[in-house]
Amino acid sequence: QVRLVESGGGLVQAGGSLRLSCAASGRTFGDYSMGWFRQAPGKEREFVAAISWSGGSRVADSVKGRFTISRNNAKNTVYLQMNSLKPEDTAVYYCNLRRTGTDYWGQGTQVTVSS
Asked: Which residues contact 108 (CB under 8 A, 6 or more apart)?
C-alpha cells in the first residue's frame, strides 16, 4: 500500500505564494509519477500538475507560469510551488501517485486565496 501525506496549505492573500509538499511512504518502489489535482466547491476534481520519475513535467494551462512542480526521489516527495495566487485557485489540493495504472491519493490540503 502507498500512503501520501500533504502539507503546506493555508490562507493567503491574492498575489501571495504557498508551497505544498507531499511525502509518499509504503510500497514506493519502482518508476512512478506524482502530481497534484484540485477540487473547488461544487466543481469536479481537475488536474494541476504532474512530474515523472525522470523529471519531465506538465502543468495545466490555468496555472502555467505561476505554479511549478518538482520532486525529490530520494525523499519520495513532490512539491508544488504556487506563486501569484488568485482567488480562483481556492480549492482542496490532492496529491497523486500513479504507478502501473494505479492511482493513489492523499487526504487533501485546503488552499484559500482571499481577494
From this structure: 6, 39, 92, 93, 94
